[in-house]
Amino acid sequence: MKLLEQRILREGILLEGDVLKVDSFLNHQMDVELLHEMGKEFYTYFKNQNINKILTIESSGIGIAVMAAQFFGCKVVFAKKGNSSNVGNEIYSCKEKSYTRNVEYTVQVSKKYVNENDRVLILDDFLANGEALNALIDICRQANAQVIGCGIAITKTYQPGEKRIQDMGIPVYSLARIREMKNGSIEFE
Amino acid sequence: MKLLEQRILREGILLEGDVLKVDSFLNHQMDVELLHEMGKEFYTYFKNQNINKILTIESSGIGIAVMAAQFFGCKVVFAKKGNSSNVGNEIYSCKEKSYTRNVEYTVQVSKKYVNENDRVLILDDFLANGEALNALIDICRQANAQVIGCGIAITKTYQPGEKRIQDMGIPVYSLARIREMKNGSIEFE
Fold first, then answer.
1. d(Cα B158, Cα B107) in Å, to the nearest integer?
2. Which residue, B85, B121, B145, B27, is CA-closest to A23?
3. Residue of B nearest to A72 (CA)
4. I want to staple B32 with a disulfide (CB 3.0 to 4.6 A). Which of A35, A69, A104, A150 is the partner?
5. Lowest mean pLDDT among A31-40, A51-60, B176-185
């Protein structure tokens, strides 16, 4: 998606440790017009798949998920990290190791909101190692829900996550696929 | 807002400790059509105030904020809780004590995304003691940004938060104002 790639080139900041900061438009400050276009793009790609639920994970995925859901006309469920006292006892859960923050989370979804009738599109902002997506896919399997595909804003294709998900037979559609980040420059596939 | 009140009566669940669970439509599963109507309602109320930024706090405020921002045509900034390694060093921060979870957070916003030119609408899902709103208002003051008002989905008017904010001279517009929750029933103002 050219619009997103251009924005990454213009505003993205490369930091030590393979970190790409896009917090001026995606995951701290959010450019809602851009999110709208991204939601529309996910809809264009997945619209014939009878998706009836969008699953994401707090917090950065929520904006993208809500925008996309407007096009799909479906509900969003966002998984919670950690031991939220508000989720209740009847939950599906899975461990996730975040490489960015070097901590392990428990990812939780109430059993009430994902079930065997769901055709789920999983959306998130970044795909690198794929730990977060993996946890969400695991939760869908526990619920006997069908994962139709994953939609990602920014995928680092030189990391193992994209291939891991595809090897499970799940389509991954990424709006910007980064092949290399080196010496302050970003190359897309 | 009748639509929200009806939904609370139909799907809200009262738990021990003055907890109202609305996670079937607002803060775990999200009914995006309802969020859209809520965003429109906030716009109708604040549209003549030249608001150019919406500030909220992760995670439950994000969906409401993004929807409202579509109407205002402005950007959203969501404050982060805890010590996020991704925010950077140049931050405004404030302590917040959550009564629901009985923990203290640090609330953080990058200095890049709130400044003295901003006319800010603060949006959140719940107002009870007002700790989260208080932290967001404090951050706006540190940034010399002007807080035009607060928009809240559900306010418990028998708790001190609403009055605390109004006593600062900041208008609070709540879509559902709960006067009492007792014996499994909910009464609105």
1. 25
2. B85
3. B32
4. A69
5. B176-185
